[in-house]
């Protein structure tokens, strides 16, 4: 049994605006090629779609789910990984400026949705316990929703991810 934890960043377009994300992953492996784990990511910049009339809020998008990852030739210095995730997304607006007394609430309701995400990443073995990866993912929100004019099509699309992993990895190829 082996394991790893990852911190990653993402760049994507949501509702025609640039969205930057920060995420974490954790996985266990039974062999060198297959991992199962969890993934969580959330947008970190304060952006709002051009069609949003309320300038005191910004849009947030969070994804949490489980994933499976196949790694091709993990013993090589540079190799490919193919993650596949599925879970729940959450799109909502938050206040640009929080209440000075610390009270926080969502100014509007929030929308939960199902998502699937596939990816192709290049991974580099930096050291025995460290790996760097980057690649292209494609998230799909297959079920329709409309949240203040933000739809499933606005959160469906490609994104670029860059991550660093720390863990106990299998040494076999």
Question: What is the topological layout?
Answer:
Elements lengths: L1 E13 L2 E13 L4 E10 L13 E16 L5 E18 L15 E17 L2 E11 L5 E2 L2 E2 H4 L1 E12 L5
Antiparallel strand pairs: 1-2, 1-10, 2-3, 3-4, 4-5, 5-6, 6-7, 7-10, 8-9
Task: Explain the overall architecture.
By secondary structure, the chain is an all-beta fold. It has one domain (2-168): Porin. Helices cover 2% and strands 66% of the residues. The protein contains one helix and ten strands, in the order βββββββββαβ. The chain has one helix spanning 152-155; strands at 2-14, 17-29, 34-43, 57-72, 78-95, 111-127, 130-140, 146-147, 150-151, 157-168. The strands form two sheets. Strands 1-2-3-4-5-6-7-10 form an eight-stranded antiparallel beta barrel. Strands 8-9 form a two-stranded antiparallel sheet. A hairpin with a 2-residue loop joins β8 and β9 (150-151). The longest helix has 4 residues, at 152-155. The protein starts with a strand and ends in a 5-residue tail after the last strand.
Instruction: Identify the CATH architecture.
Output: Beta Barrel
Indicate the CATH class: Mainly Beta
Give the number of DSSP strands.
10
Strand order of the largest sheet: 1-2-3-4-5-6-7-10
Give a nutshell description of this structure.
This protein has 1 helix and 10 strands, in the order E-E-E-E-E-E-E-E-E-H-E.
List keywords for this structure.
about 170 residues; mainly beta; Porin; eight-stranded antiparallel β-barrel; two-stranded antiparallel ribbon; 1 helix; 10 strands; elongated
